[in-house]
Here is the input.
Amino acid sequence: MDLGIRGRQAFIAASSQGLGYACARSLAREGVRVTLNGRSADKLEAAVEALRSEVPGARVDFVTADLTTPDGLETIFAAHPHVDILVTNNAGPPPGNLEDWDAKALIGALKTNAIPAVQLMRFYIPKMCSAGFGRIVNITSAMVKSPKYDMGLSASARAALTAISKAISTEVVRDNVTINNLLPERIDTPRQEFMAKRLMKAHGITREQAFERIAATIKAGRLGRPEEFGDACAFLCSAQAGYISGQNLQLDGGSYEGLI
Here is the structure.
């Protein structure tokens, strides 16, 4: 299927690795001009080279900027004053429990996992509406719909983003600007290496055993593949997806047990 977005410009936040990079790769394969983002120029340069190797002819550049700072956002806006596709993303806060979630922790989670995405939308949406095309995909988490105790901080910040995105989506869809959320669960990225190491330390098990335990939490019995996630993102950014907005698409191997 031709997704009808060849030649469009995309900005993918926090995309030097993991889920952001997977989305960038899938979009590049559709002929989208892709801008990667992160805080490390070295990692971004390596990611650009990897992407060009994986997708011959890919048109890709990068912006080194910290999304959580005003200066970082201004750097992004100066480099790309208009984009057709925006994918928001950032590393989630660490697991914890109630005693860890003081005001500083709560504000920090919002500063990382909600506020930057909203500021990016505030800047880009008016231009998208004027152009009559825009696709926004927020990478959130399966925890938004199925919160687990130790991930409560992440779930709460991402739920805030989900709520405001839904509100905005109802106003801008008339201009062919859509906003949707991808809710990943256990995708095979560096984040799962971090989670595996926590299990290894807590239970004195091997890396292989840790990943077996992680996979066992998924109904499909395996971790999701990054390309599965990236391709789902690419479809939500497609010309064909103009009638899909304000939705939460779970990529969780069938693990969510609710009806809606």
Notes: The longest helix spans residues 152-172. The chain has two domains: 9-186+225-251, 188-223. The domain at 9-186+225-251 is CATH 3.40.50.720 (Rossmann fold). DSSP finds nine helices and seven strands in the chain.
